[in-house]
Amino acid sequence: MHEMIKGANVGLASLSETTGSVIVSLSWSSPSGDGDADVSVLLLGANGKVRGNGDFYFYNNPAAADGTVQLLGPTPTENGSEDRIQLDLTAIPGEVDRIIIAASRHQRAQFSELENIRLALTDGSGESLLGFSITDAHTESAFVFGEIYRREEAWKFRAVGQGYDSGLAGLATDYGIEIDEDDDSDQDGEACAAAEPAASAASAVENGGGLAVETAMATPLPQAAVVALASPLAGVPVQRGADPVAAEAPAAAPARRLRTAKKKVTLPKAPKVSLAENEAWRAARLFPASSLKSDREREMRATSVLLSVMTQVPEFGRRLTAAFGSPAGRMETFTEVSLPNGDTSKRPDGVIRVERAGKLWTALVETKTNGNALKSEQIQDYMDIAARRGYEAVITLSNDVALEGSSPVEVKTDGRLKHKVALWHLSWAEVTHQAQLLIRHEGVRNEAHAWLLQELLHYLQHENSGCHGFQNMGPAWVPVRHGIDEETLSPGDPRTVQVVESWERLIRQVCLRLGGELGTKVVPVQRAKRGTDPQSRRAQLAGWLCVDGQLHAEIRVEGAPGNLAIVADLRMGRLRTSIEVPAPEQGYPLTWVKKLLKQLCEAPADLHVQALLDGEAVGPRGTLERLRPEPGDLLPRGSERITGFRLSLSRGVGSTRGNAETGFIRGVDAAVDLFHAGVVRQLEQPRPAQRAKAVPACN
């Protein structure tokens, strides 16, 4: 990889032969686990300005209609979060001279609060070409990371690293975007859709229309930029990319015109009453799974079902292939294709082909179901075939969940071949997650597509489909459990690292499942020192497992008042889920406790509540059952100050690998679901401000 310094530039053609389509990744980590930023792209003409507001791509306008610019969204990494942008440089209009890559923080938070701020660029084959780290961030709330610009019909990259204290609004104004000054100072705003009063939003939802607000610009963005503000956590679908129907705008605020977003098709909140005489009647399904008898049948059926739905539902197909470097275009899919390989032929499970501007992008697909492992020799053959035939990618699809810095299958690349082939992995859990987001929260454009996605989800979730995601903690699980119970597990035992990796896969799958059900971002939080590589971090966690017999994890649920912590105590066979809630900014401690207990009126009676005190002191604690009649028992007897409350719930989990009803994986899923539904969702949403100040306790 070519490492850049601030102000340096390099020609992309000198780094790779396949730079027609590139992916730019912006990444960062946060010591607190909750820091984030939003990426944006601006297309500039020769005068250094945008041609119009439509050249500004950010979270309310994430993709160009022609597919040349696509914000692919954030993905969790080992130490934080990464946002990716796909650019089709071969189709960028000729009048565009520069492409600005930037990021901004919400509510003018400072980039100095983030660590490992970095840009990376990969070519169409997935090979990393260059990297640029920003190490001098201070009070800036927005940064131009770099720019891709034309020089004599060739594209070059320049590492910029220019910061803005004025946030996204100041950055955008510099490049010709017209920003309403009122919105520039708004708490919710930057240059982005500011929320209207809750009463107006509630009224709009009651009237059946999704409330949409234009971005704060003097001229409106394209239709795709309009986004509904209803919260998915409140059970109201988020309408992204919906075509707005014009409504009259208030005269006093022309840049904040309310519009009714045309609803997309999603699954109904409550299913229709069945006409069946009794529960033994089963509805006819487009993709039946009950008759499948062998793993080979499951693989063939699952591959054909998935690829056909990807073709027929463009939103779904594009969502899955964009992350693999595929261009936006006409897609066709095939199954059981025979391809020559020396004296014999090979038959990958599927082929995906996308046509754009007369060019073809092709990926071979190899599928495994029911927990079957991918075979290195088989994937190696497909990589070799793809390289010889000029195909761009090989995609593996199985129940396994890929980890950062670790591939589900090892292959060797033949350096003698000029054509580079990218190897990508997709989990069935990720497929289900993306289908859930579309059909249950974001919507698709017509009823036929919605019905197809619904049938796909039913198939994937059927017990006989074999497409259930990560379901087995691996062969090291039982020996490590026995070693912990018998106190014979030695530090450095390689099996402990395997268990830590399986635990990490499980947590990533929990995030995918919960995020799909809620329609919001749910990501694992990795707390590691700067520069710690994944293998070193896992080795450290494995060492702790030998000492205390515990596995630790944190997940961040967008909109929750804090991170959800998960601790699996393998010695005790217990799993503890917890969350820390900051104390309010104003009022009295007894009032805080009463309000908290009122919010938790439907929480389990054995929920454990502890007051967090300033300093090292251990605060008062008790169960909800005991505290409800005596809320004052949660107040400290001395002069210590309450800074927050820790809520935790403990449940037993099975010890088997995960494929039985009492299995460990099922136990973790059930415990997280119970805690989130019974505790986290009942808590009041946090205000967009810093952690609450501690207030002296009083009796």
Summarize the entry for a quick read.
The protein has 699 residues and is of the alpha+beta class. The chain is globular, with a radius of gyration of 26 Å.
**SS-derived structural category:** alpha+beta
* Arithmetic mean of pLDDT: 79
Roughly how much helix do the residues carry, as a percent range?
Answer: 10-25%
Helix count, DSSP H or I runs of 4 or more residues: 14
The radius of gyration is 26 Å
Please count the beta strands (DSSP E, at least 2 residues each).
31
Termini separation (Å)?
62 Å
Query: What characteristic shape results from the CA principal axes?
Result: globular
Which sheet architecture does the biggest sheet show? 8 strands, antiparallel
Structural commentary:
By secondary structure, the chain is of the alpha+beta class. Helices cover 25% and strands 27% of the residues. It has 14 helices and 31 strands. The strands form six sheets. Strands 24, 25, 26, 27, 28, 29, 30 and 31 form an eight-stranded antiparallel beta sheet that branches. A hairpin with a 2-residue loop joins strand 11 and strand 12. It starts with a strand and ends with a strand. Residues 181-262, 658-662 and 687-699 have low confidence and may be disordered.
Descriptive tags:
699 residues; 6-stranded mixed sheet; alpha+beta; 8-stranded antiparallel sheet
How is the topology of this model organized?
Blueprint: E1 2-4, E2 9-11, E3 21-29, E4 38-44, E5 56-57, E6 69-76, E7 80-88, E8 98-104, E9 115-122, E10 128-133, E11 142-151, E12 154-164, H1 167-174, H2 181-184, H3 198-206, E13 210-213, E14 227-228, E15 244-245, E16 258-261, H4 295-312, H5 314-322, E17 330-335, E18 339-341, E19 344-346, E20 350-356, E21 359-367, H6 376-389, E22 393-398, E23 422-427, H7 428-442, H8 447-461, H9 477-486, H10 494-518, E24 522-525, H11 534-548, E25 550-557, E26 564-569, E27 574-582, H12 589-599, E28 608-613, E29 618-623, H13 624-627, E30 641-652, H14 664-678, E31 695-696
Parallel strand pairs: 1-10, 21-22, 22-23
Antiparallel strand pairs: 2-12, 3-7, 3-9, 4-5, 4-8, 6-7, 8-11, 9-10, 11-12, 13-14, 13-16, 15-16, 17-20, 18-19, 20-21, 24-25, 25-26, 26-27, 27-30, 28-29, 28-30, 30-31
